[in-house]
């Protein structure tokens, strides 16, 4: 089952969770429980609550070193990965499948300029990057992983294992 992503191409979940019984409902919910990324945007992104299960999945990913903090770091990593993927495609002669392999988790209190930059990133990296807005502010998101008095507007999960675990942690909340 596939549904359109933020970039308009079909959303394909990571292979690790594709066979999970929750996957069809998760896929549907990721495209129906959405809001515009910012007021002038054409992109709609899923919106999810910060549940205990989701918080635990994020802490686990952070402990495993699978979380990148900040838009700037995410941009650099995604650009480097894209160059590598393009080289691999050229060498193999066949294009790779387009599945979600990176997950951007956004605080819900960012400025319009921030969300516009996120939109540009999503348009550039298409179906392999999925953005989700969490119903938590930057202080709550930062304190969850980095401790008191820390903020985080954007977290990127950069390993498929973490992406799958966090997506499944979201599955039950709708």
Plain-language structure description:
The protein is α/β, with parallel strands linked by helices and 174 residues long. The protein has one domain: 2-Layer Sandwich (60s Ribosomal Protein L30, Chain: A), CATH 3.30.1330. 48% of the residues lie in helices and 17% in strands. The protein has seven helices and eight strands. It has helices spanning 15-18, 23-32, 52-63, 71-92, 112-125, 138-146, 160-171, and strands spanning 3-4, 10-11, 34-36, 44-48, 67-69, 102-106, 129-134, 154-157. Strands 3-4-7-6-8-5 form a six-stranded mixed sheet, sandwiched between helices. Strands 1-2 form a two-stranded antiparallel ribbon. Helix 2 (23-32) packs across helix 7 (160-171), helix 3 (52-63) packs antiparallel against helix 7 and helix 4 packs parallel to helix 5. It starts with a strand and ends with a helix. Mean pLDDT is 89; it is low at 1-7.
Strand content: 15-25%
Q: How many domain regions? A: 1
**The CATH topology is what?**
60s Ribosomal Protein L30, Chain: A
- Separation of the first and last Cα atoms: 19 Å
Rg, Å, rounded: 15 Å
Taking the sheet with the most strands, its summary is: 6 strands, mixed
Unreliable spans are 1-7
Task: Summarize the helices and strands and which ones pair or pack.
Elements: E1 3-4, E2 10-11, H1 15-18, H2 23-32, E3 34-36, E4 44-48, H3 52-63, E5 67-69, H4 71-92, E6 102-106, H5 112-125, E7 129-134, H6 138-146, E8 154-157, H7 160-171
Parallel strand pairs: 4-7, 6-7
Antiparallel strand pairs: 1-2, 3-4, 5-8, 6-8
